[in-house]
Amino acid sequence: MILHEGLDKSDKWLVQPGVYPTLIGSFLANTDNTRTFNIPDNIPNIAQKFSATVSIYSGINNGEADMALWFWTECDGNSYVRFKRVRYYVQNAIAYDSETFDFIHCETNRKLFAKVDNPNRYVVVNIYATGYSI
Q1: Which superkingdom (predicted)?
Q2: Domains defined along the chain, listed by start
């Protein structure tokens, strides 16, 4: 019986019912400077890749625009980039979105990088470690 195509016995889940996953980092998307986060210790050095759930929320915006977000790891001179695009707009409510990305893991550079364009102080980004593969 196949439970999910692409799953392998080497996949390790870091999410448990009722327990929040480990926070890799959190930031206000109020600058276009690159941010750097340490990969948490519950992702072992021998991991080939890891999964991270990115959650984004915004609200009480005073304008309307698109925002691009890039998340990546670096290994042996290569960047492994994931991309997400959101739109914020004037509203009296909170908008929320999340997505899980897989990243190449490099034991010699245990960092995750993030960058946005079109910064907005009313957009918050949280990144959680949710699994890895050996």
Answers
A1: Eukaryota
A2: 23-133 (2.60.120)
Say if residues 69 and 98 touch (Cβ distance below 8 Å): no
Instruction: Using the structure block, give the residue that is written with the tokens 């995750």.
Output: 112
Q: At a CB cut-off of 8 Å and minimum separation 6, what does 88 contact?
A: 58, 61, 63, 64, 65, 67, 95, 120, 122, 123
- The per-residue pLDDT for range 9-36, each reduced to its tens digit, is 568 888 889 988 999 999 999 989 999 9
Contacts (Cβ under 8 Å, ≥6 apart) of 5: none
- Of 37, 5, 17, 12, which is closest to residue 115 (Cα–Cα)? 37
Which amino acid is present at 83?
F
Per-residue pLDDT tens over the stretch 83-114: 999 888 887 778 889 999 999 999 999 999 99
Is the CB of residue 123 less than 8 Å from the CB of residue 56? Answer: yes
Taking the C-alpha atoms of residue 16 and residue 12, their distance in angstroms, rounded to an integer, is 11
93: CB partners within 8 A, 6+ apart:
59
